[in-house]
Amino acid sequence: MTLIRPFAGLRPVDDRAADVIAPPYDVLNSAEARIRAQERPWSFLHISKAEIDLPEDTSPYDPLVYETAAANLADMESQGILRRDPTPCYYVYQLVMGEHRQTGLVAVASVSDYDSNRIRRHEFTRPDKEDDRVRQIEALNAQTGPVLLAYPAQAAMDSLLEGVTHTQPVVDLVADDGIGHRFWVVSDVTLIDQITGAFDVMQALYIADGHHRSAAASRVAARRAGQGADGSAAYFLTVIFPHDQMKILDYNRVVRDLNGMSPETFLAGLSENFSVSPVSDACHPAGPGEFGMYLAGQWYRLTIQADRIPADPVARLDISLLADNVLAPLLGISDPRRDQRIDFVGGIRGLGELERRVDSGEMQVAFSLYPTRMEDLMAVADAGEVMPPKSTWFEPKLADGLVSHVLD
């Protein structure tokens, strides 16, 4: 079995892509999805969030949701909105967000290489979320949400993909969130073999986002006895970008109270492990080991003392440094996954959102973090460890609906 292979994708006919594509299923809640799908009968949300076509009190995990998703997918095929390519192909997918551009490969990746940790993960998964993705795959007999992967950037592979983008794309559109999506079909057998061979010598791929989807694909493969075989269930849908083109935004923290301390006492506690300097503007950290803090209407720059940074790939992450030197010892937050006193704010919202939540009185203090680097994520995965919760916020997001992998 090869690490990746081409597949006959199920995708919108070329003039229908704008009607079909939608944000990933886990980006919108049900109410938001209902609004986004209004007046859009072919939106992929009718498949990825099929509860929007049922009464509003319907649980997203109701069996009828999966049945409705399957019926909607079949209807989109019968109406000619979606069509399956006649032969296995690779696809090149380019995302554009402002000045940022990233170009990756759409392929199916080996479940057995996922199981053996050649396709490396960095997060724990929740059984209930895995169960949901298993039910979705089984109901549709297809994988519709791609797993976001990274490969260690290689000039030769990057050049192959870039070369494809010099031809006319089959999809070239800007979604309603301003993100550009461009999509090419790679059907040339020689180029397909080049791509397959180039990936097959790679030591590892890295899951950036989609741990539940990949875990669910592994479970479906095992259930269908697909592991170790060459059946379609032995592979799962992915988009693979070079690691140095991927964009991770900051994932910031806001805390409801100061654990009984006054701002002055809290600042004194911070000074034991950090250099603390007030600044006049919202503080974007300039590099690892530096943090912004908004407290009582004032921004501060916090720089951790060098001897507080350990060598361990997880413990040296800024998320861990904040947790181990501030959240746990000073604010009493030892389990950020479950503690209701802390919340997380994606960097796409900007530092103004941190100010708003503190100034409103909802929160007492906010911390801005330097974005996690892909190299740090890969080091954690290589060590077989897991990232702390809410470590990465990838932008731009992949679109659902551009191409799906049908299980034969």
Keywords:
single chain, 6-stranded antiparallel beta sheet, 408 residues, alpha+beta, Conserved hypothetical protein from pyrococcus furiosus pfu- 392566-001, domain 2
Task: Write structural notes for this entry.
The chain is an alpha+beta fold. The chain is built from 13 helices and 21 strands. It has helices spanning 17-20, 30-37, 45-48, 63-78, 111-115, 127-140, 155-164, 189-200, 211-223, 263-270, 318-327, 351-359, 374-382, and strands at residues 4-5, 10-12, 82-84, 90-97, 100-110, 119-120, 142-143, 147-151, 171-174, 180-186, 205-209, 235-242, 248-249, 251-255, 274-279, 290-295, 298-304, 342-346, 365-369, 393-394, 405-406. The strands form five sheets. Strands 1, 4, 5, 6, 8, 9, 10, 11 and 12 form a nine-stranded mixed β-sheet that branches. Strand 16 (290-295) and strand 17 form a beta hairpin.
Question: Care to give the gist of this entry?
Answer:
By secondary structure, the chain is α+β, with helices and mostly antiparallel strands. It has 13 helices and 21 strands.
Distance between the termini: 17 Å
Main β-sheet description:
9 strands, mixed
Number of domains: 2
Any idea what the radius of gyration is? 22 Å
User: What is the number of helices?
Assistant: 13
Basic shape? globular
Q: Report the helical percentage.
A: 25-40%
Number of strands: 21
Q: Which class do the helix and strand fractions yield? A: alpha+beta
